[in-house]
Amino acid sequence: MTSQSGRGTAIACLLVMGFVIMSGCSKRQEKIDFGVVKNNIYTNKFFGMTIKLPKDWTIVDNKQREMLMDLGVKMMAGKNKKMKKVLDTAKLRTLSLLLAYKHLPDSIGQSNPNLFVSAENLKGFRTVDNAEDFLTIARRNLKKTQLKAEFPGKIQNEKIGGRDFGKMVVNIEVLGIKYSQVYYCTVIKRYALSIVLTYDYKSIPDTEQILKYISFKK
């Protein structure tokens, strides 16, 4: 899977993964609920989260997500062996929960917005108490990769499904195509739960509409 849309999503996967790990070591991941998808509705009991995806969106299976993450490591690290080792470690430490596209993952020549959800175990990280801490470290470490990422604006707060989230916008360019990625992060049970939306300027309304269909148990 090496289409433009696939490469863009590979980076989406890796950008959200393991940035806290780059600045330290965490404990081994606990076994948690990875969630289930039925009729394009994703449910995760551990986080008390439900995401109702549009019926025409495609859910990526575990094998495809793994392929995209491996591709993302190569693209972000380039020839930097030290960075590749760090990203490989990050990939192992981060729980990939959900990846969905508006179109088929290998679609070529069209905008293909996507949604990526992951979780990072924060136990043992004394410097991370909330979403803003996590996103601040993510931004700092993003600058260390070979990607030329831009960060318009500051980290903001936004409610999704009744929960408080930190919000960070990142602009990147992949193979001549400019993408915007919006990172939403909240801390639940000492896990940084991240929701990442990736899109180009043509697909902003379609992608952000999904946020209205994310809910959390109170």
Short description:
The protein is an alpha+beta fold and 218 residues long.
Report on the structure:
The chain is of the alpha+beta class. Helix content is 27%, strand content 32%. The protein is built from 5 helices and 11 strands, in the order αββββααββαββββαβ. It has helices at residues 4-15, 62-77, 81-93, 131-142, 204-208; strands spanning 36-38, 41-44, 49-52, 58-59, 94-101, 114-121, 156-160, 163-174, 177-188, 191-199, 214-216. Strands 4-5-6-10-9-8-7 form a 7-stranded antiparallel β-sheet. The chain has a 4-stranded antiparallel β-sheet with strand order 1-2-3-11, with no helix packed on it. A hairpin with a 4-residue loop joins strand 2 and strand 3 (49-52). Helix 1 (4-15) packs across helix 2 (62-77) and helix 2 packs antiparallel against helix 3. It is globular. The termini are far apart. 39% of the residues are buried.
